[in-house]
């Protein structure tokens, strides 16, 4: 160190030297002089806050949203425990509104037309999945495909959900319903018909229904029960706001363990289905139908490769490649993942709405018995369901009145000019909403009232633009026909086998948001 003052100390700390430094360097030096590590950190912090606000305003432009962002985190705490009323306030605030949580800028579309525009703009947007989804569903999962790759993959799956294909799986639905309603009655009798929460039972019913329809009896009752027990861990791990890395004993950790277990079980089912289909077994579930389509495609490809002439009638509708057991498991897992929460929500609402409206339940019961000529053991078929306009109307009205999925997050792939004046920047999240479209007074007069008749004597059916319950565009719900038919089958059979009442609680009029929407009491 240089000896400036005769003592071995720093020049700026020397009482005699420092005034000269101030005098020579002016303002900057005076700032530096007072600079401590805390001041430096404070200044950096204020700069970061200013940058965060500036960035928010830059993205926000003329979109409606809070004038200032809570530094960095924005309304993070609100989004950890989202309230339906807060979403509603957002929709009511404008056609497009925004919010910024941490580094994510989020635009929410409220109107039907804005929402439709997003759903139908695959050049600009793609479905947005939380980071944890890649870890739980596997990076190579088809749900992460975009554009042509997605369209091509989906073509191979669409055939599994046609009405004709569903005919083959409906017996599974019937078996699960028979078994479950018997258990419901036993449980209720054991509880001496005292009021008790039934939502966990509806969730279990929906898991069993999905598992049996997707993989038939390749899965044991015990494993179906385990999937039902553990599934909520997967939902919790996939909440919009979650810790980005998987730390032991966190929600994502438990979710990943549960997902791995389900995936491994589905892979075992695939191996069994493969063997059974190769041996000429009958299609009993969605997995069988897909495996059989792959085996038929392989035979066709082989013939063509060997120069054997094949009649055009023998050519499969979709010539598929072979998929490994793991790939099949991954895809079937996405069906469970996509259906579980939405169908659990729909069935819970259906049971509650029917209990609150016994006259509607009576009509459903009357119709179900009538089409079976009074014999409630007559099995469910698509033709039978086609003869039940009232039961269908009840299911449609439930889905309109309480759409399980109220918003569908998408990611902006490239700057998206959503209106003449507003361009949403690449990297933002953009969320089309379902609820406002299904509660639009113009399309559905008295929208806040449950009126199944609007689907029979009214013109609700003609309001297809507002029917966003299953989305629209290239990612519209693959399982929508199956979901509606199985809900019809469920409520129809329940009406014939059981009677039930709802004991309202102070929460009964609320709407709880947990991935989908639920009645909390
Ligand atoms: C009441 C029940 C259901 C509701 C309300 C519902 C709703 C939705 C919605 C809103 C989407 C997003 C659509 C979009 O982005 O345009 C979706 C996608 C999807 N749903 Fe459903 N869903 C239900 C049941 C099911 C069932 C039972 C299955 C499978 C068996 C299923 C499979 C899927 C799949 C695979 C996708 C993603 C499609 C793609 O990205 O190509 N859903 N669903």
Automatic annotation (TrEMBL):
<dbReference type="GO" id="GO:0016125">
    <property type="term" value="P:sterol metabolic process"/>
</dbReference>
<dbReference type="GO" id="GO:0043386">
    <property type="term" value="P:mycotoxin biosynthetic process"/>
</dbReference>
<dbReference type="InterPro" id="IPR036396">
    <property type="entry name" value="Cyt_P450_sf"/>
</dbReference>
<keyword id="KW-0479">Metal-binding</keyword>
<dbReference type="InterPro" id="IPR002403">
    <property type="entry name" value="Cyt_P450_E_grp-IV"/>
</dbReference>
<keyword id="KW-0503">Monooxygenase</keyword>
<dbReference type="Pfam" id="PF00067">
    <property type="entry name" value="p450"/>
</dbReference>
<dbReference type="GO" id="GO:0020037">
    <property type="term" value="F:heme binding"/>
</dbReference>
<keyword id="KW-0408">Iron</keyword>
<dbReference type="GO" id="GO:0016020">
    <property type="term" value="C:membrane"/>
</dbReference>
<dbReference type="GO" id="GO:0005506">
    <property type="term" value="F:iron ion binding"/>
</dbReference>
<keyword id="KW-0349">Heme</keyword>
<dbReference type="GO" id="GO:0004497">
    <property type="term" value="F:monooxygenase activity"/>
</dbReference>
<protein>
    <recommendedName>
        <fullName>sterol 22-desaturase</fullName>
        <ecNumber>1.14.19.41</ecNumber>
    </recommendedName>
</protein>
<dbReference type="InterPro" id="IPR001128">
    <property type="entry name" value="Cyt_P450"/>
</dbReference>
<dbReference type="InterPro" id="IPR017972">
    <property type="entry name" value="Cyt_P450_CS"/>
</dbReference>
<keyword id="KW-0560">Oxidoreductase</keyword>
<comment type="similarity">
    <text>Belongs to the cytochrome P450 family.</text>
</comment>
<dbReference type="GO" id="GO:0000249">
    <property type="term" value="F:C-22 sterol desaturase (NADPH) activity"/>
</dbReference>
<feature type="binding site" description="axial binding residue">
    <location>
        <position position="477"/>
    </location>
    <ligand>
        <name>heme</name>
    </ligand>
</feature>
């Amino acid at each position: 160190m240089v000896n400036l003052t005769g003592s071995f100390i720093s020049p700026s700390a020397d009482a005699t030297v420092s005034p000269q430094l101030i005098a020579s360097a002016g303002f900057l030096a005076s700032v530096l002089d007072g600079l401590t590590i805390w001041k430096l950190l404070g200044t950096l912090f204020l700069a970061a806050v200013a940058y965060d606000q500036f960035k928010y305003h830059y993205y926000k432009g003329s979109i409606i949203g809070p004038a200032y962002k809570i530094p960095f985190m924005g309304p993070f705490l609100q989004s950890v425990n989202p309230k339906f009323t807060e979403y509603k306030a957002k929709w009511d605030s404008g056609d497009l509104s925004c919010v910024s949580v941490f580094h994510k800028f989020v635009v929410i579309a409220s109107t039907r037309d804005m929402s439709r525009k997003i759903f139908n703009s695959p050049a600009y947007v793609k479905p947005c999945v939380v980071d944890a989804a890649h870890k739980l569903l596997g990076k190579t999962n088809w749900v992460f495909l975009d554009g042509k790759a997605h369209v091509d993959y989906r073509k191979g799956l669409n055939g599994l959900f046609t009405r004709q294909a569903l005919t083959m799986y409906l017996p599974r639905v019937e078996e699960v319903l028979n078994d479950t309603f018997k258990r419901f009655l036993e449980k209720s009798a054991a509880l001496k018909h005292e009021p008790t929460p039934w939502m966990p039972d509806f969730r279990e019913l929906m898991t069993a229904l999905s598992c049996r329809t997707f993989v038939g009896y390749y899965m044991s009752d015990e494993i179906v029960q385990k999937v039902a027990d553990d599934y909520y861990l997967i939902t919790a791990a996939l909440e919009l706001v979650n810790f980005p890395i998987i730390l032991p004993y966190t929600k994502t950790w438990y979710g990943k363990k549960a997902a791995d277990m389900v995936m491994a079980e589905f892979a075992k089912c695939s191996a069994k289905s493969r063997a059974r289909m190769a041996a000429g077994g009958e299609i009993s579930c969605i997995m069988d139908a897909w495996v059989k389509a792959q085996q038929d495609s392989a035979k066709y490809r082989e013939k063509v490769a060997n120069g054997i002439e094949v009649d055009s009638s023998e050519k499969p509708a979709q010539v598929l490649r072979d998929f490994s057991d793991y790939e099949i498991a991954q895809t079937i897992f996405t069906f469970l993942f996509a259906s579980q929460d939405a169908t659990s929500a729909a069935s819970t609402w259906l049971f509650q709405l029917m209990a609150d409206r016994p006259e509607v339940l009576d009509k459903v019961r009357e119709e179900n018995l009538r089409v079976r000529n009074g014999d409630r053991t007559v099995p469910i078929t698509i033709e039978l369901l086609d003869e039940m306009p009232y039961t269908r109307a009840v299911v449609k009205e439930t889905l309109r009145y309480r759409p399980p999925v109220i918003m569908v997050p998408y990611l902006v792939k490239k700057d998206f000019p959503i209106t003449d004046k507003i361009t949403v920047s690449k990297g933002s999240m953009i969320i089309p909403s379902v609820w406002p479209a299904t509660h639009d007074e113009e399309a559905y007069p008295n929208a806040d009232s449950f009126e199944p008749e609007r689907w029979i004597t009214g013109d609700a059916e003609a309001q297809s633009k507002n029917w966003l319950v299953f989305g629209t565009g290239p990612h519209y719900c693959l399982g929508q026909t199956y979901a509606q038919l199985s809900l019809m089958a469920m409520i129809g059979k329940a009406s014939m086998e059981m009677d039930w009442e709802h004991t309202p609680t102070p929460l009964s009029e609320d709407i709880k948001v947990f991935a989908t929407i639920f009645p909390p009491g």
